[in-house]
Amino acid sequence: MSNDQNTDRDRLSNERTSEVATAEATVPPSDERTTDLRPGADNCYKCTACDTSCPVAAVDDEFPGPKFQGPEQWRLKRSEDTDIDESIMSCSNCMRCDSACPSGVPLSQMHNTARGEYVEGMSKLSREYVRNRILANYGRLARIGSRVPRLTNFVMGNRVTKWLNERLLGITSEREFPAFATQTFREWYDDRGGSKIESEDRRVAYFHGDYSNFNTPEVAKALVRVFESFGYEVAVPEQRCSGTPMFANGMLEDARRAAKFNVETFSELVDEGYDIICSCTSCSMALRQEYPELFDFEDTEQVATHTYEAIEYLRLHEDLDEAIGETELEDESALAYHAPCHARNQGLHRQALELFRELDGVTIEDVGDSCSGISGTYGWKEEKYDYSMEIGEEMFDHMRDADGTTGLTECPTCAMQMEHGTGYEIDHPLELIEKAVV
Ligand code: SF4
Ligand code: SF4
């Protein structure tokens, strides 16, 4: 692992730890934490660094920005006991403001909490609530749709269905619904008889999330093969959605149920010596940051401290860079790499660049530090679609300027946006590692 990456990760990790510590020291404990973060607001000295980092505020004149959504909103509540402003629903939960704040204000925690409170007061029959609940619970629908993948793909790709989704639910018809795989990752894993490796001391538990299971099993299969090639036993326990789309839509009760299941399941494996690895940077973000900020299940902290993004884990525990440096790809490829916002928050935005620069046959270009604009479910909302594309324009331009027509990113929805904006094929870094070392 390079010193640069170590330093980045350590710095961000220390900052995050101190932010969480500050927040925990100043906010009321456990249950109350989900409804009162007002003391955290006092750490804000109004520098507006968060506002200038916010991609939504840059394109949406109606959005007052993170400083208002966080500290100011809580101050207002303290002095006037006002309701949460509806503009909180326009925050995409990209969490860029978290990294921008020099004062450790727990902005995304405030936003998530405010959104949860706002959604509690929404009409459960409103079109916005129904649409957001559907988007937030994608995994439940995917479980049903993936039983008949070809039929579902046909129906969801149909122009009439897209038109109805937009008119009735407010889900944009501009995007292609992601196709379901004909065999889910979990079916593949069971069919091959689970992990091919058994090990007492090299064991990881894979949090694959819904998207890798139902839509891009090739990413999840690559992870299993890569880890097995380094001698790891890879367990794939039952799991629920990480909660990321639920946090983004204020569905905190749904998120709480999913998180509780995940914490209980994965903590048992941690007790047996497994570390937790994720192929999606938003999933690792949820388990290591959002769960401890929002929930207080018995083993939340234990799960958080044992969670890693998959490539981060290999770089920490194996000499992945050397393994990559000793090999060469048969087919030359030029890659345009986008670091997801949630990878930045975890200090992981340089790792793919550092790693693949060592790989013969590959040229890799960073397409800049802008947000892709889709932010999970944000870019799927009819009224946000144009903003989402406007935010993504900088990334699309850089991708077009880069050599080659293949994109690379760790986040499945950033991949969707990259493909949508450029027509490029988008790979996951794990697929490239598989090609190089397995
Ligand atoms: S999470 Fe992203 S969209 Fe929301 S306020 Fe922060 S920077 Fe803006
Ligand atoms: S960056 Fe932090 S300190 Fe500055 S305005 Fe935003 S919340 Fe306040």
From TrEMBL:
Gene3D superfamilies assigned to the protein according to its UniProt record, in alphabetical order: Alpha-helical ferredoxin (1.10.1060.10)
The entry's keywords: 4Fe-4S, Iron, Iron-sulfur, Metal-binding, Oxidoreductase, Repeat
Compositionally biased region (Basic and acidic residues): 1-18
Coiled-coil boundaries: none
The keyword Iron-sulfur is assigned to this record: yes
One annotated GO biological process: anaerobic respiration
GO molecular function list: 4 iron, 4 sulfur cluster binding; glycerol-3-phosphate dehydrogenase (quinone) activity; metal ion binding
Designated name of the protein: Anaerobic glycerol-3-phosphate dehydrogenase subunit C
